[in-house]
Amino acid sequence: MPDLLIELRSEEIPARMQRKAAGDLKKLVTDALVEAGLTYEGAREYWTPRRLTLDIRGLNARSADVREERKGPRTDANEKAIEGFLRAAGLSSISDAHVHSDPKKGEFYVAHIVKPGRDAEDIIAEVMPMIVRDFPWPKSMRSGAASARPGSLRWVRPLQSIVCTFGAETEETRVISFEVDGIVASNVTYGHRFHAPEAITVRRFADYADKLEKAKVVLDAERREEIIGADARNVAFANGLELVEDEGLLEEVAGLVEWPRVLMGSFEESYLEIPSEIIRLTIKTNQKCFVTRQPGAERLSNRFILVSNIEAKDGGREIVHGNGKVVRARLSDAAHFWKRDQGDLPDPDTLKPSAEKFGLDLKKPLDQRMAKLDALNVTFHAKLGTQGERVLRIRSIGLALAEVTGADQALVARAAVLAKADLRTEAVGEFPELQGIMGHKYAVLQGEDAAVANAIEDHYKPQGPSDRVPTDPVSVAVALADKLDTLVGFWAIDEKPTGSKDPYALRRAALGVIRLILEGKARLPLLPFFDVALKALRTQRPDLAGNIATDLLAFFHDRLKVYLRDLGARYDLIDAVLTSDADDLLMIARRVEALTAFITAEEGRNLLAGTKRATQILAAEEKKGTEVADTVDEKLFSLDAERTLHASIQLASGDAREAIVKEDFRSAMAALSKLREPVDVFFNDVLVNDEDKAIRANRLALLGLIRSATGEVADFSKISG
């Protein structure tokens, strides 16, 4: 079966767009071919800075004929109906139609239509121009003389050539010719821009990839990453250093070069006085270079790894020299930011009102930055006020949370008012990724308590499922306060996540609260603290929304389900313990854990079956309006099974209730497991729907006790199985 090779070669595609663009090309082409009736064995996409490539194997040479039946009017229909049928079916005469009989509808005409298949080459030539013209680039441009014409091609960067070859491995490939804005598809491509600028004639993928390799182009992006990673580690090792790994940078750099060559540069050791985070971001952001360090050390070395796209005749000396000049200039700027942030602001007298509001010491640089942040009225959100107002709310919430986390209130208050101060530092202004980190460093330099400095950095955490969760009580209090203020605030202004859209990262904030509570084993009832956060907000914005607690708690429940499910918990077990007003997330998690252990044991499974039977019978009778006694009357018992079950329920309920008070849910489950045998015996020996109305009502009330007893720990009716 034939193979199809497509290459779209252009000027340099931004690295961040390459992977998705190659995937889009694969999906668009394969979807179009399948829709046209073709099948294929496999497809793989490739990308370099200057090309998107698609290799499709085992493509049908021709689409299959399509046969369909089109039902027409009855044979005794009027002439106009028959003429309409002939036109729609493409028949020249009614004699070309077939007559089918139906016992109910009589005889009617049917057209047997055969749509012949099409050559794959014709299909490809038809779909490719549309795919190229409508390609979903995030940003695109027009170029060249043709760009002045209406409807001219838009592409991410000027499109230069198209390769499209087709043929079986045992045959000579053919060029599928089509044209897009003056660019005609051919079998000609070009290699490396500088090392191999000559035209290359290609046939099929293996030949294409081999010739590109000889022309200094490594087609496979993953292989370029492997080359860069391995060579960078080897160069670092040869110099007694180790590479500081960065997967994101590695992928980006692999998207900047077609023929990667790894080199090492250096800068003056005096720049190592700058924090390592600033050095790393400066070199990464501005020069796309990797940093190194002594093996096992935290502090960076003054050597960096760069990746060139050419084999320089001088061994790369000029490239290293040029990159080194830029790195030094950027580090000089970074050193300037670092020193400026430790000095006084030029207008301290204007900051006194803000300093008094927050209890700041204007002799300290970080305090000055917080006062400046407030004095400038920097907006957090148009409907939620300034950053200064938000800091006041975080402090208020944090002080309330300190009682739960066991944190020192004075330290929480101090950490809260300094938490956002580094937003006014020049280092964070240049590198927003360092907010919190720089606040921590500046806090240490001005002599803050270690708990305060740590909380300034950690109050943003956790920022994702793999991020570290703070454990220090001060950090936990400020981190929770920050996230609860965010969530309550955006709920109050009705800016909630919708579908896949979550512009304020509220799902991440809720997950952060959940992880802080569960992984920190914190007993934090959410509803009272929603009220604390809302009260702090209404002090500043009295016109904002009223009761948001129910809806926000439901949002937390949804996030909790996802979190617990990712840890392996069953959805039905989570639903079984989760009530609409449950706001103690740690308690919910412990109940789920205990229920999981209980249900996986034989006694738990058997009790579940008996309980569900009791619940279903009771629910069915309640639905029919059958009378159920308010209380169980022991005088109406006539069988030992009734008496035994009643006594067992009273004993098990009492034991389970005591265990729940102690939050020992496993013991509560163990107490309920004792109901297994008396429940089984009851259903074997007792007819619930007795003819005597009073006895029936009493026995249904007994089933109600089973439901109530198990309901102390979970709603067994929601458990599957």
TrEMBL record:
It catalyses: tRNA(Gly) + glycine + ATP = glycyl-tRNA(Gly) + AMP + diphosphate. It comes from the Bacteria. This is Glycine--tRNA ligase beta subunit. Its main location: cytoplasm. It is an enzyme of class 6 (ligase). The gene is glyS. HAMAP family: Gly_tRNA_synth_beta. GO terms for biological process: arginyl-tRNA aminoacylation; glycyl-tRNA aminoacylation. It is found in: Cytoplasm. Pfam families: DALR_1, tRNA_synt_2f. The lineage of its organism: Bacteria, Pseudomonadati, Pseudomonadota, Alphaproteobacteria, Hyphomicrobiales. Belongs to the class-II aminoacyl-tRNA synthetase family. One of its GO terms (molecular function) is arginine-tRNA ligase activity. The keyword Cytoplasm applies. Keywords: Aminoacyl-tRNA synthetase, ATP-binding, Cytoplasm, Ligase, Nucleotide-binding, Protein biosynthesis. GO terms for cellular component: cytosol. Tetramer of two alpha and two beta subunits. Its EC number is 6.1.1.14.
